Amino acid sequence: MSDTTGASYAAAGVDIEAGDRAVELMKEWVRKTRRPEVLGGLGGFAGLFDASALKKYERPLLASATDGVGTKVDIARRLGVYDTIGHDLVAMVMDDIVVCGAEPLFMTDYICVGKVHPERVAAIVKGIAEGCVLAGCALVGGETAEHPGLLGADDFDVAGAGTGVVEADRLLGADRIREGDTVIALAASGLHSNGYSLVRHVLLGEAGLALDAHLDDLGRTLGEELLEPTKIYSLDCLALTRTTEVHAFSHITGGGLAANLARVVPDTLHATVDRSTWAPGAIFDLVGRTGRVERLELEKTLNMGVGMMAIVPQDSTDVALATLADRGVDAWVAGEITARGTHDSGAALVGDYATA
Q1: pLDDT (tens digit per residue) in 291-324
Q2: Pairwise CA distance, residues 183 & 235, whole Å
Q3: Is residue 93 within 8 Å of residue 102, measured between CB atoms?
Q4: Phi and psi based region of residue 78 (left: phi greater than 0; alpha: psi -120 to 50; beta: remaining)
Q5: Separation of alpha carbons 350 and 122, rounded Å
Q6: Transmembrane region positions (predicted)?
């Protein structure tokens, strides 16, 4: 007698009921991100945001960005810690948006898993929601996709997209920067979410270090250090624009400090950053020393302890530093804007790093 049982989605590895359970678990966290402009809740086909809120602008410019957190998700998977990776996602998206002076408005996420574990997915969304609160934006929707056969049962990845708004005559960028401007560095919370392919290769691969190993130089386990959430600067940057004149921001992500700073410096000017004004955290030395990574390679891969840079007029420097200090942000004068010489690039690091 032949088996007449037909194929099913569940037999193929997709559990719709688990997906529904994950949505129920995440609703509480999404509600915490709600802004007055958000209409409806989870469950619709699209998130709704009341654009009439933009009527207060003379000429509103919408800013958008999308990103992920790269191979840092592998650290979260190995450690079984899922409620911090969302902070990284929000930071990568919304701190790109605030660079032009835009206020973060709303965000959507995409979570791809090999198998839906409802509590795990809800923990990821919890972290995204907490990050949205820190960035001042709403989480208006998202998608959880189950990809059996393409991803292992414990594998996952996250991505997100965000939207912000800025008044046209308040738009920040290269055209505002002037010779003599001050470059202010805002401290990173750690590695943030870039360079993890190198970090994993050096520390977990070549050196064979265990994530649960306590390292005296770090003052905690390697896993705790590598999973440290990315600092979200959005509201700090907006506070600067309200308290003093700001010409530009630069989010220090992939490509490193000099390359990202050069993206906002006009062709006629040059940004010089003095390494001696700060000491990178112990994790940067650990990666460089353990993997015998040359300084130039480190600097174009990792943030070296600086997560955001603000370029302000020289006479705004003190107010900017005081504003950041009041908000608990470690910041310092790291360089200046000068005329570009014949052989100058957009930005360069000079000197040697300070020692801790």
Answers
A1: 999 999 999 999 999 999 999 999 999 999 999 9
A2: 19
A3: no
A4: alpha
A5: 45
A6: none
